[in-house]
Amino acid sequence: MFKSPIKKTEYLNGPDQIIPADCIKTWKPNGVTKLKLGEQGPSAHPPVSVPTLLKKAAEKYPNTHALCVKRNGEWKNTTYREYYDQVRIMAKAFIKLGLDLYHGVCILGFNSPEWFIADLAAVFAGGFAAGIYTTNTPEACEHCALNCEAQIWVVEDQKQLEKVLKIKGRLPSLKIIIQYTGKPTVDGVLSWESAMALGKQQSDNELDSRLRRMAVNQACTLIYTSGTTGPPKGVMLSHDNLTWTAHANCVNADFNPGKEIFLSFLPLSHVAAQMADLYIPMYAGGTCYFALPDALKGSLGQTLKEVRPTRFLGVPRVWEKIYEKMMEVGRKTTGIKKSIATWAKAIGLEANMRKQRQDFSKPFGYSVANAIVFKKIKAVLGLDRCTLYLSGAAPIAPEILRYFHSLDIPLTEIYGMSESTGPHTIGMEKAFKVGSAGLTIPGCYTKIDKPDEEGNGEVCMGGRHVSMGYLRMEEKTNEAIDGEGWLHTGDIGRVDSDGFLFITGRIKELIITAGGENIAPVLIEDNLKAELPCISNAMLIGDRRKFLSVLLTLKTNMNLDTGEPLDTLSAACMDWCRSVGSSAKTIQEVLAGPDANIMRAIQDGIDRANKLAPSNAQRIQKWTIIPRDFSVPGGELGPTMKLKRPVVVQKYCETIERFYEA
Ligand SMILES: Nc1ncnc2c1ncn2[C@@H]1O[C@H](COP(=O)(O)OP(=O)(O)OP(=O)(O)O)[C@@H](O)[C@H]1O
């Protein structure tokens, strides 16, 4: 099959091999890339395949709970030995059902043991595990399935099944659909149990033969980008990308082997969740609990209290939601309780500000504040045994970080992308700075390309976590990974004298005005949000235009079932309205008229933000309030809550044109 000879790695007794290769990137399904093995330190760690990693975990932690899921009100546990056995059984089923090497298994559903088992079974069988966002439209599902020539779809339930049925006729490679919850009611769709029964009947021969031929420098997983900047691309991750990244992060963050507890609730099709919930626990022999499907609609808080994870990663929106809830409680607190909380928060903030200066001493009164306030709050949040609190996948506002610091929750940032198998830099309690994405993870390398006089340039990443390329996209691969193997992130940033990375913009989002001025919108948008707490989203417009304008959305309540924004203003927004002399309760009330107090207060906020602008071209001249907040179902936000600027521009093109009418 391959022209180059296959050799066994000198490090391993198992079936793992490295196929000799000269290229550092590929876009071909059966492509191989050169491993970037270092001479010493983390980058010299022996490479292992994903199947070997799971096998080792099963040997080392046979009776430790690997996966815990609540079914009919009871936690059901799967040990590492059972996990490994079930993955092998499902891999045999996939082979029997016709999965060929280098073909996709698309997984569409909420986080569950079946999701993990299907993912790893695809890898064991020599296919590509491809998580698909549950928020995808049928057309977006089709795009991904065609790209990876998916032969198997594993779907959660009837709702997700319907999407696949809608596009089935246009998927020439499709062989079977498996449904992992509920009884399938559609002919030809296999239940999870039937697929497992089929796998159990098969001999081990074909699976073992595929495992023997597998190489650590071949692709085994595809991460589809969420499409903030264009149609999803299939990021090819090799065994080494995944297992090395898990290793590097467990070592860097001092993971406690066999003892760590994780809670899986972020979309698994995103690289951050896959690394944090699937690979890191497997490497550390940790236990992964699954949240309920309605986690983000409200049940997450209760599950957190039950599970009490030892490490916790949320996207900024998750932390913002906790913040908003706590602020609401705070507003109702009065008298002595309020005074104690205010006093303790000042101490918490001071303790964490000291840590930023590498001073780990505690301010006077800390132990009392800890006993009567911090410990209690952490217990209420289910974060009392957590030692690493992370926010990642998008920038988080410094005010949110500082709020958690005041509760003695040292929330820090992690930064990376699908193309870097997730994490590249991380802030941790022992070394962090507010506003920074943290320090480069040992074994990874950061280069700032073409820095300006302030040191800002494109952030480039190097190391064994850099992906192989984009499946079947030669041009895009060459745009992203240069000839030396540096991944060009499209992010603008600088590294300070202590090695901390600060992300200051995104090239992909840069606004170039008609006057030729380059403007990074995020800083301006963040300034606006800081001035106007009633704003949930601000999107700057100005590319090839004469001046800047901004689309604003107000903070509103959400329909918890559908995720759609409602017309009613959130409690925080109503508070702000009252503070500026308005009694508005809905967007309609704000816009009808429009409400003069609110309009004046927003204009004042914009004027204040404009004062921070370094040049005239960076001042906002016109603005409007969009009658509906941005949302995932509305299409303006991606699954990790990142703003899809091109969608917003298209959707509100008439509003935008009105800004620039002569
Ligand atoms: N801590 C952070 N601070 C600032 N930006 C971040 C942080 N973490 C991630 N990002 C942003 O997210 C990008 C990576 O996005 P990711 O690979 O998760 O993609 P995606 O949403 O699927 O992709 P795409 O935007 O290409 O559709 C980074 O390049 C960076 O712009």
Automatic annotation (TrEMBL):
Location of the AMP-dependent synthetase/ligase domain: 55-471
Class of the enzyme per the UniProt entry, highest EC level: ligase
UniProt-listed Enzyme Commission number(s): 6.2.1.3
Keyword Nucleotide-binding: no
Cross-referenced Pfam families: AMP-binding (PF00501), AMP-binding_C_3 (PF23562)
Single GO MF annotation: long-chain fatty acid-CoA ligase activity
Keyword Cell membrane: no
Gene Ontology, cellular component aspect: endoplasmic reticulum; membrane
Keyword vocabulary terms for this entry: Fatty acid metabolism, Ligase, Lipid metabolism
Organism domain of life: Eukaryota
Stored Gene3D superfamilies: N-terminal domain of ligase-like
UniProt name for this protein: long-chain-fatty-acid--CoA ligase
Organism: Cherax quadricarinatus
